[in-house]
Each structure stands twice: as structure tokens, then as C-alpha cells.
Specification:
The protein is mainly beta. It has no helices and 9 strands. The structure holds FE2/S2 (inorganic) cluster.
Length: 128
Amino acid sequence: MTSGAPGPSVAPEGSAAPKPGARLCALSDLADPGAKGFEVRDGEARFSGFVVRRGDQVFGYIDRCPHAGWPLALEPDRYLTRAGDYILCSGHAALFRLEDGVCVGGPCAGRRLTPWPVAVAGDEVIAA
Ligand code: FES
């Protein structure tokens, strides 16, 4: 997904968002640190989000940069910097903290990614 054109809503409250409790993946499916994207379509509704793992913690965000509204990754699941220490927007290289999605460098510094509530239950990552 590389288009920057406006599209259907990707808000977590959209009808296509995984319902609370829905299994997303196994924790062991995620590298540490690592990330994985999820795209769900339900008719005209669309949801694009991703989860980021650091240790036993997993954070979820809507896949939309607060700078220009573009998806963050040019390639599937490539949300992190090479060192895995920040979320990287491939649009204009904004950097976001893994734990709260706050932009610490780039054209949207001080703004943040939209959270997508997720949780870890045993070895499962679920929508929360
Ligand atoms: S769209 Fe993300 S930094 Fe510009």
C-alpha cells in the first residue's frame, strides 16, 4: 500500500476494525523488536493498522502518518528503523517512539500516531 491519495476511513472505530478480543497474531510471530501490519476490508470500510513489539510489550497504531496522512510503510511490515528503535514513516522520514507513537523527528515533530488498542494474552496478540 503506497498510495498517498485520500481513501476510505481507517479509523479504529470503523466497521472494518478488528473487534475487541479478535486474535491478530502470535506474539512469537513478531520479531523483537518488530512490527506487523493488518489491513481489513469490509465492503467500503477499510482498516489499516500495525502492531509493534518490544520485549513482552506490544503497541498498536493506525497506519496513517500525522504529517500528510500517508501509510507509513512502503513495504509490508517495514515500520521500524533498521535498528528497530523507532517507527519510521517512509513518506518524509518522520520518527516515532515505539511506546507512545510521539514523533521525535521530522515534519510532524510533537504530534503522534493514532493509537489502536491491542493487548497480549498469553502468546496471542489481540485487539483490545
Ligand atoms: S507523510 Fe509521514 S513524514 Fe510526511
